[in-house]
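pasting input
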Amino acid sequence: MAIVPRHTLKKGAYMREIKAELITQAVKRMCINANTVLPQDVRHSIKSCMELEDYPAAKDSLKLITENYEIAERENVPICQDTGVACVFVELGQDVHVIGDIEGAINEGVRQGYKDGYLRASVVGDPLERKNTGDNTPAMIYFDIVPGDVCKITVAPKGFGSENMSKIIMLHPSDGLARVKEFVVQSVEQAGANPCPPVVVGVGVGGTFDKAALLAKKALLRDTDDVNPDPKYAKLETELLEAINALGLGPQGFGGRTTALAVKINVMPTHIAGLPVAVNLNCHVARHMTENIK
Amino acid sequence: MTPIEITTPLTRSDALSLKCGESVLLTGEIYTARDAAHARLLETIQKGERLPLDLQNNIIYYVGPTPPMPGRVIGSAGPTTSGRMDSYAPKLISMGITAMIGKGIRSPEVVSAIKKHTAVYFGALGGAGALLAQCVESSEVVAYEDLGAEAIRRLKVTKMPLTVIIDSEGNNLYERGRALYLEQRRKTVGEE
């Protein structure tokens, strides 16, 4: 396909040009900041859970969790030593033209961020040979083409203590809502102390096998204190959070009310024969950071 | 509850005295090892070769710290999920280690080894790497430097806050703590 020079575009057509270096700089900055400064929404959720917690040992754990992120910010050290695989979500406006290699630019940002930020290289190349790539690349990159001329990038470093405890199931339509709820609650219960509770629970319902998992992962990008715009799902999120916090696992799994900080559900249409459900868990160090690149 | 102060090396009789749910402040030398280092240690044992560290009465901390910033001893250094070391741990316990520090569920085989050899499983606060790093006075790579964050390090720690999750009788805080909380809640709800 021929490249159309800008001056030959039809009147009214417009492309925003973004240099790939700008993307590298933004990704680098976000890798470092996301790993050292816990987002405000997660802090709010921890604080409100601390007020509701009625078990002394659990309250003590939540105090230490708070102390930990305060030390991290003050001393400029990562909140958790598992600085994660860098999950990078790109919403690329269709009227944006990136000058250069966008994927290369993102990986370069991860490389620089993890090196200059003294973050841990936690990625192995071949999953069976298991040799560390040394610079935390490649990032897990997700592209969405959206209307407009903005390039929105979210960096969410994801630890694997929680990732390993995530689950997916292909339910039958006849299983219905009751089985969906049961699967979500059971997934958290079976994960126990492994994913570093209090957890954030990302749920994806619908789509296909892979889309359900992606919905669950994207649900984790929502602020923990936001409210689902669909009242039906807002109610379901509250119900599931209450059911999970009745399990008694508590912070660290040592008992208590606060097993989860939030439950977030993202849904999409699916096939007449299916009801895929995915549960992606995140620990209390629920890192996510977003910038609009212009 | 006032934490119990303990120092390394941790003998079998020290391990015997620690009970499920107790808070502990640990001072002394401990060794770090996670997935890749465990695989190598077991390979060395199978080959009948000499191990790069003495296991007797020593403690293994399941951690892969972040690199230290200039002028600092260590980066962030919280526990990783212990369950991934379950296939290796019984052998190391039988060869002399008296404690493991990590987070998360252990297999029945590990619990059996803990009971049989009078060892203990400590929990450190998962996700609190910045806080736990403050207890680390020194860090020195003693083996497998090529593994980077996964190398075996000797850490000198001072008053590292831990909780006894599984004691030498096999009592498990994950079961006990949850049951205690649920019991308390049932009572509270009953009173209302």
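fyi Chain B is about 30% helix and 25% strand.
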